[in-house]
Amino acid sequence: MRTVALMSIPRRKLTKSFRKLTGRLRKLGENFTPQGLKNLNSKIMEDNELTNVNIALYALATLNGTTKKVATETIAIKCFELSPSRFSWRLYPQYPDIEAARIALFDAQKEKNGSLVSGRYGKTTGTKLGDGWIFTPKGIAWMETSQPRIVEQLNKPAKPLKRTERDKRLLEVQKSVAFRKYLKDGNCQNIKVYEFTDCLEASLDTPPHLLRDQIEKIKALAAGAKREQILNFLSECETVFNKTLGN
Fold first, then answer.
1. Is residue 189 part of a domain?
2. Which listed residue, 26, 99, 119, 184, has the most CB atoms within 10 A of its CB?
3. Pairing state of beta strands 117-120 and 132-135?
4. With DSSP H G I counted as helix, E B as strand and the rest as coil, what are the percentages for the chain, rounded to 5?
5. Using N-to-C axis directions, what is the helix angle for 177-185 and 228-240, rounded to 10°?
6. How many domains does the chain divide into?
7. What is the DSSP string of 59-104?
8. Buried-exposed string 64-92: b where 16+ CB fall within 10 A, e elsewhere
9. Is residue 13 part of a domain?
10. Kind plus residue range of the DSSP H or E element containing 117
11. At what angle do helices 72-82 and 52-62 cross, to 10 degrees?
């Protein structure tokens, strides 16, 4: 193959080629600006094509992942039931593939994809939470919008969100001393630490990572029920009790 020396190319032609190249790179780079990432994320998560992430999120919803954490293996089994061809081993298609479900859940957790779920895969080690996944407030809103499309594409009957357990837990938060003080004062400045942990159904000895886990669960419940007052209360608690939460 003959190699052409760079110096042998006319300057005018080299400049023109360089401009074309930079133009293409600039156009490509638009996808990596904040707005470009937002548009790209919108295309990934709201496209009409049924993705593994869509299926994994729908599986989590059918397993009441809006109100509690669900183990990765349990989600993988449900994904396999919904779409065996996508969530099975290549050489042994009769077995569910947990890795396919894990990757889909990790993708759904990424900030660039909307941070639709919260959780991790694996056993509890040190201060890390144990295995399991739960919808974030953004994820609940996304699922409520996207579920009809996913159900239609999967040709599966829709399962209504479980409300009894959710309403009961939110009522407990509203009855707590901490929340009543928040309503009276309009802030969390006069709430004692033990009153805050009581609201989370925890104690002063509860590790920070478990307290944060409880907050995420209640946030998910409040988002699903559209309880803005509770969401605002929890957000301010996170600021006031940031040391207690280990932040």
1. yes
2. 119
3. antiparallel
4. 60, 5, 35
5. 100
6. 2
7. HHHHTTTTTS-B-HHHHHHHHHHH-TTTSB-SS-TTSB-HHHHHHH
8. bbbbbbbebebbbbbbbebbeebbbeeee
9. no
10. strand 117-120
11. 110
Span 129-156, average pLDDT: 86
Instruction: Determine the residue type at 212.
Output: R
Average pLDDT over residues 132-141: 89
Whole-model pTM: value is 0.56
Together in a domain, 135 and 78: yes
Give CA–CA dist 231/137, Å, rounded: 9
Residues 198 and 228 in one domain: yes
CB atoms within 10 A of CB 188: 21
Q: Is residue 215 within 8 Å of residue 196, measured between CB atoms?
A: no
For residue 118, what are the β-bridge partners?
Answer: 134
Domain that holds residue 183: 164-240
Q: Give the residue with greater pLDDT, 19 vs 217.
A: 217
Residue finishing a domain among 127, 154, 181: 154
**Average pLDDT of the chain, as a whole number:** 79
Quickly state the pLDDT bin for 141 (edges 50, 70, 90): confident
Residue 230 has pLDDT above 80, yes or no: yes
- Location of structure tokens 């006319």: 10
Q: Report the distance separating Cα 138 and Cα 49, nearest Å.
A: 20
Q: What is the pLDDT of residues 51-108, one digit of tens each?
A: 899 999 999 999 999 888 999 999 999 999 999 988 988 888 899 999 999 999 999 9
